[in-house]
Amino acid sequence: MPSPTPxxxxxxxxxxxxxLSLVRRVRSADAETRARAEDALAAVYWxxxxxxxxxxxxVELEDAEDxxxxxxxxxxxxxxxxxxxxxxxxxxxxxxxxxxxxxxxxAKAQRRLKRGGGAHVLSLDIAELEERLASDGHDDPDAVxxxxxxxxxxxTAIARLRDRYEHLGRRTHLAIFERYDVMAGGEADRRPTYxxxxxxxxxxxxxxxxxxxxxxxxxxxxxxxxxxDLSGNDEEFRAEARALLGVDPx
Amino acid sequence: xxxxxxxxxxxxxxxxERPEGAPVRYEIVERIGEGxxxxxxxxxxxxxxxxxxxxxxxxxxxTGEERARILREARILAALEHPGIVPVHDVGTLPxxxxxxxxxxxxxxxxxxxxxxxxxxxxxxxxxxxxxxAVAFAHDAGVIHRDLKPQNVMLGAFGEVLVLDWGVAKLRxxxxxxxxxxxxxxxxxxxxxxxxxDTAAGAVMGTPGYMPPEQLAGSASVVDxxxxxxxxxxxxxxxxxxxxxxxxxxxxxxxxxxxxxxAICERARAADIATRYRSASELASDVANYxxxxxxxxxxxxxxxxxxxxxxxxxxxxxxxxxYVVVRLALLVFARR
Lengths: 250, 337
Description:
Chain A is mostly helical. Helix content of chain A is about 65%, strand content about 0%. Chain A is built from ten helices and no strands. Chain A has helices at about 20-25, 30-55, 60-80, 90-110, 125-135, 140-170, 170-180, 195-200, 205-230, 235-245. Chain A is globular and about 65 Å long. Chain B has helices spanning about 5-15, 65-80, 110-115, 120-140, 185-200, 215, 225-240, 260-270, 280-290, 305-315, 315-335; strands spanning about 25-35, 40-45, 50-55, 90-95, 100-105, 110, 145, 155, 160-165, 170. By secondary structure, chain B is an alpha+beta fold. In chain B, β1 (about 25-35) and β2 (about 40-45) form a beta hairpin. In chain B, α2 (about 65-80) packs across α5 and α7 packs antiparallel against α8 (about 260-270). Chain B has eleven helices and ten strands. The longest helix of chain B is centred in the last third of the chain and has 22 residues, at about 315-335. Classes of the chains: A mainly alpha, B alpha+beta. The interface of A and B includes residues 128, 184, 217 and 234 of A.
């Protein structure tokens, strides 16, 4: 049976010992590896970047959508992700600086953004994001970027956990975790009891307890694995992990 | 799609940090505190049927520096058996590699919150002396706290005073050797040695306002017990004024603080190490002198102040003498009529 541990060689603690992060894989000579890494980075960063464009540059909805997509097209065309140097700044600081430069140049040129052109098509769920931005409207744009970045990391980790567990046939584990920790939205009164979960899934309450603990442990590993993917080196990984946990959100 | 509400994000973030997989003996109840290095959870010790506090690193750490520091903190706590220092019960490693230790769960109030409750000055000074006693005990054991501040002092429900957070402490001499039986103990010995070397290199650790100039400058080699005296001085300023200590005692008459206590604060917080009290005991002794209306070493008193102090110290006897004189005078007056 395959291990539920995230990809890569695993240490006794369940974390990859050697792992080439996405940030490093976008520099790969292999086009397919590079394209997959770029897609993964775009999936994590599209929402924070959209929020940043909307709030920091005070851009209207349609233009923000264009600029966000345009930025990714530009990033791929100019290999911006591949030119990142971990020694100089955190990856997300670098991404924001690139976005700022791109938006500034676009405004200066005053021309319509080119879209598509064989580049990746992004799935922008603008309505949902706009709803959140409306309620965050008075917040500091940096704080909103950080919040969206955290959300994207968690969503990515859940997606990876889901893929892995489906591959392992652990659908019941996944159902428990999703119903108890994800769908309940963190609100205790919406959360089903272990007994209710056990009854609906046809297992015992003890199994619910144990399987939830296992899945949470793996979820944690996937979150940290995602952070590793988004970091250029160990130092950045630690800084990002602390930022995700709210210790140092800068 | 980012279909996660803010509440779900907060919940999942907490899950990531939560020490899932802690030994079965400890049932995690809730997070009760946090710091830069780790988070503290209230846990239930199933074997002994009591509540404990479990401190755990937030993230696995490739370099091992913080892991070494938390282990070292546990060892320091274990070595300092004193009523004013929280006892440690257990130490271990989670399946994900994070180190944790288990200590007594102190129910009570942090000193900063306690002091805001408008307590009598004498009561605050007695609490302060207990803090000094715990720190003096640590100094005797060769441990310098280096981050003394009101937030790191806890007052228990029964009046006990506990000094917490020894994570950046400096060791003046090696801790007692640990058993090489357990893997954790073996690792601790090596890691503690590494960390000592790191701190000696002069990393700046502490809290502005409570950190002496030599510590702020990163001069680890000159940081000694008097660095903690400076921190204690900061705590004393906070207790007397309710304000975060600045570089000097607040000027002007806004603060109704007697001159001897001001002088104690100033000597404890002198920028020049040689001017400071040499030890926490010496500082505590001067505060005790003030409470007992005895001369305070830090303050040269005027004749008027001396008369006032002696009168305060002997007020009962003075009252009896005065009462006697008044009665005698009254009797004389009545006898002449």
